[in-house]
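Supplementary Note 3. Input sequence used for the single-chain structure prediction.
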Amino acid sequence: MSHHLPVVETFHSLQGEGMHAGRSAFFIRLAGCSVGCSWCDTKHSWPMESHPKQSVTTLAAEAAAAAQAGAAFVVITGGEPLHHNLDALTQSIRAACTLPVHIETSGVDPISGSPDWITLSPKRHQPPRAELLAACHELKVVVHEANDLLFADVAAAQAPQASWLVQPGWQSTEGQQLAIHYAQSHAHWRLSLQSHKWLQVR
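The predicted structure, written as discrete structure tokens, is reproduced below.
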């Protein structure tokens, strides 16, 4: 259990993507990612050693303050947050406030932290663990090309309990056209957009 974690940033904003888009959320962005997506918009979060470690009690206190300011839930993101054991962090958050804990992950590592909500965004070049597919609440696949939709179907077959979303890669014209058409022609899929980028909020 890690009582100090490398933190890129914390902030209170709106969830921009997925099933909870538009809701007030407190974000904890942890450092470290070995997945290496070429389109990643937080590449500065990849190296763990570049970011200071903070105690889980400090992070939990920030979450509690965000709850007082109107946050509806906590999002632990990255990087790849499950590169770390999140048991101590989620325990501290739950001791400090009543906010649900959401985790955004690619699914390459085992689950830790007993999250209330798992957003699984799997990657073709590093497929997720079966346990993450079976446990996730939403499956959100980023689309740049047609093969991403084939991958989405394979993943969805292993996550029947989840809500399924296709999300165009940012500034990917082909991905946008493919994702819109796919959601329109497949009743069980939903379109997710990065609304925070359109709105230019953090």
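The chain has one domain: 4-199. The CA atoms of residues 13 and 201 lie 8 Å apart.
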